[in-house]
Amino acid sequence: MPQRYAYFQKQIVPLEEAKIGIMTHAFNYGTACFEGIRGNWNKDQGQLYLFRVREHYQRLAKSCKILGIGLPYTEDELYDLTLRVVEQCGFEEDIYIRPLAYKSSEILGVRIHNLDDDFLIFVTPFGPYLDIEKGARCCTSTWRRVDDNGIPARAKVTGIYVNSALAKTEAELNGFDEAIVLTHDGHVSEGSGENIFMIADGRLITPPASDNILVGITRDAVMRLAQEELGIETVERSIDRSELYIADEVFMTGTAAHVTPIIEIDRRAVGTGAAGTISMKLQRLYFAACLGELEKYSDWVTPAYAKVANA
Ligand code: PMP
Questions:
Q1: Is the CB of 255 under 6 A from ligand 1?
Q2: Which of 118, 121, 214, 268 suits a disulfide with 7, CB 3.0-4.6 Å?
Q3: How far apart are the first and last CA of the chain?
Q4: pTM beyond 0.85
């Protein structure tokens, strides 16, 4: 039976044995950086493909630099560790891998210096997040995205996710699937856990990193697929809220959300009100790449299991 394992305090242990003390700094103050990496189960091949593991660890290293967390592992070591935990779990379904580097001292005091750091990984089964076929209904959040001068949004800091959680809960309790969060100056930043794209006049447009987005790895994959497979270039520029209302298509990207079409924003239909044609083309390309079916993008995926189950 597959089972959840974690890498915790330099050992691989069953998930239920990986526990932190209640005084842990990161638990009290949100002083941790993390990643979310998907493993996508290819049923036909009996293989689990991990998506862009190295890129996730490169982003984690940047987040740690911003938060002053020492990450005493090379990218190769993190890559190998991840594979070891995933292999030990043995899941034959979609999974989510959560590496987390955190301030581990059990000590009071609001700061990021003179504290111990630690690193863990856990793995859990994880299905769809938003409705990727029908599409999602969104509202503009009354919450604004954290600013680079508040908590740098390009760092995937646990504490930032209070901002995301406020927006997501407001959206869901008001009957929507997801929130669109604006910057302090009122431009579109991103979803609560996704980047956002719009299609207008045949071009893809997405907010730049300077609009307080987390620079998504799925965002990058979609931009490349659009350019190389569909000949559609992406313009990175600030987007007004009302531009989304009149766009031909809108979609969101993220490790959890994959490529999710947005069919309604603030009770206005996006385009025809159904999942957009280009959005769905990109979704299909993205899934093919994720499942190891596009040779050209084979460097994006890591097969987790040495022995293929159905071979
Ligand atoms: N923005 C936020 C706030 C997120 O949490 C995520 C998910 N990690 C994204 C964007 C998308 O990033 P990625 O494609 O790397 O998962």
A1: yes
A2: 121
A3: 20
A4: yes
